[in-house]
Amino acid sequence: MSDARLRATLTGAVAILLWATLALGATLSAGLPPFELLALTFSIGGLAGLAVVARGGRLARLRQPPAAFALGVAGLFGYHFFYFVALAHAPPVDASLINYLWPLLIVLFSGLLPGERLQRHHLGGGLLGLAGAWVLISGGGTAPRLEYLPGYASALACAFVWSGYTVLNRRFAGLPTDGVAGQCLAVAVLAALCHAAWEPTVRPSAVQWAVIGWLGLGPLGFAFYVWDHGSKHGDLQLLGVLSYATPVLSTLLLLAAGRGEAGWPVALACALIVGGALLASGRFRRG
Questions:
Q1: What are the tens digits of pLDDT across the range 56-99?
Q2: Maximum separation of any 2 CA atoms in the chain, in Å
Q3: Predicted model pTM
Q4: Cα 206 from Cα 42, distance rounded (Å)
Q5: Mapping DSSP to helix (H, G, I), strand (E, B) and coil, where does residue 118 land?
Q6: Going by C-beta distance under 8 Å and a sequence separation of 6 or more, which residues neighbour residue 100?
Q7: Phi, psi torsion values for 184, nearest 5 degrees
Q8: Would you kindly state where each structural domain of the chain is located, as residue ranges?
């Protein structure tokens, strides 16, 4: 792997670390309607990005071809829209299990890109990561139920939307990441419309405002900028497998905050996901 590709991959991996804080942020912002939270956080993420671009005199770099802009908005908004629908129509554990097919789908779909090739160590690492995520989220076992089929379908749509967005984003590798600011602001507008149509407005508390600020600047803001860069220039297969670290790190963070209990699923999931990442990195290849 070239130095530039490695740097881009590591940059994209920063998003994985930031997304690990989402679960704790969600617990601290409990009581806020999801689309209201989405509108507020994406507004912060978009405005922060816009401020950085303006300060650097790069406003012209905000312009994007319609296809690139549409892909970004569809990926960012579509994923969260279907995720909220999934949570409303299926148990959170089931929805999360199906949703976490997206890292494996990134590994698989990226093999279809020009100049990319899906290799056995990538696939093996993705499958190990998937197994680890399922063990962690399910706690060792879960059973699907037909009455939750709409929720399952929405969770599956999440996986395909995010993996499709990530892989197709490679087509626009020549475009600067600055354009994500406009995409975030468009997502904020769409979320505000959904909030106005379907949700009551809740006034955030001081603690919730602090959490909204962090989410908007971090996991629902800066994370999308570094993920954009990583998906355009990094190793997509490795990024996909590394993404399975998100549920493990999220769980460990919740445990550290006293909001969960450790058990064998956490230890087993850590072993599977770390093993999958090492395998996908090619560390164990012969020659």
A1: 888 888 889 999 999 999 999 999 999 999 888 888 877 887 88
A2: 60
A3: 0.88
A4: 19
A5: coil
A6: 130, 133, 134, 137, 159, 244, 247
A7: -60, -40
A8: 3-280
